[in-house]
Amino acid sequence: MAPILTVKNLDKTYESGFQALKDINLNIEKGEIFALLGPNGAGKTTLISIICGIVNSTGGSVTVDGYDIVRDYRHTRSRIGLVPQELTRDAFETVWATVNFSRTLFGKPRDDAYLEKVLRDLSLWDKRNNQLRTLSGGMKRRLLIAKALSHEPSVLFLDEPTAGVDVELRQGMWETVEYLRETGVTVILTTHYIEEAELMADRIGVINQGEIILVENKRQLMKKLGQKQLVLQLREPLSSVPAGLAAYSLSLGDNGESLIYTYQTQSAQTGIDSLLQDLGEAGIRFTDLHTTQSSLEDIFLDLVNG
């Protein structure tokens, strides 16, 4: 099956000479949740803005469902929904008028039944006659999604969907994104909250200094680049790691009361068996042991920091 979104050799250089994007190549599969991660200024917003037709590129191409975003602008734009961070409509407008207006902007024929379904699915139907100024923060976030879905897009961009909201609202947004996937919408999100990508995304893309430095299945990424640590609680504290164990690159924790061994998860030989044997021969005893694994945040920071 062909990707629903294809980016080829995309470049963006501003008049100042700043190159925001450098030879971006990316394929997004239909129905997946793709998380685009990167530090501030990495190029996330520029990339999304070009795909959504807000900013022009200086090279390369983008196709949505096989249609070019420049030659077939109206067709591709109608297939894309963008959920910004803020709601900018008139505070005295009603929920129903807001989503209805968004639908007409794309030349879609009136379809009250579809808009009712969108509002019901997002738990906003009971608020359809309410003015925007009366909505809670969570309702406003869901209304942004309803607006973006009003013209029936097949690809939905969520730009920092939970920035500045509390934990409860973030969990509600996660549930909404999962619902969108179940309805067949392809979701592409940018986020500063690594746990969002770890929780929801099928694949992870990392962009830094205008370049895509990695695109990988989330589980495969964590398996390939993650590390595990074996932490041994010592019976007697150590002041330093014995010289005979230097080959294991051990470190001390808890003021010498624990010994930490770090190893790669993808390695065929972890070295744990020989480590435990050498610890016994060195007379080092432990009362307990457990393992911890790198989080996606650890992996992300390692990638961005080179």
TrEMBL record:
Keyword annotations of the record: ATP-binding, Nucleotide-binding, Transport
* ABC transporter domain span: 5-234
> Which one of the record's GO molecular function terms can you name?
ATP hydrolysis activity
Q: Which Gene3D superfamilies match?
A: P-loop containing nucleotide triphosphate hydrolases (3.40.50.300)
Is DNA repair among this UniProt entry's keywords?
A: no
The UniProt entry, under SUPFAM superfamilies, shows: P-loop containing nucleoside triphosphate hydrolases (SSF52540)
Protein name in UniProt:
ABC-2 type transport system ATP-binding protein
Q: Which organism is it from?
A: Halospina denitrificans
The taxonomy runs: Bacteria, Pseudomonadati, Pseudomonadota, Gammaproteobacteria, Halospina
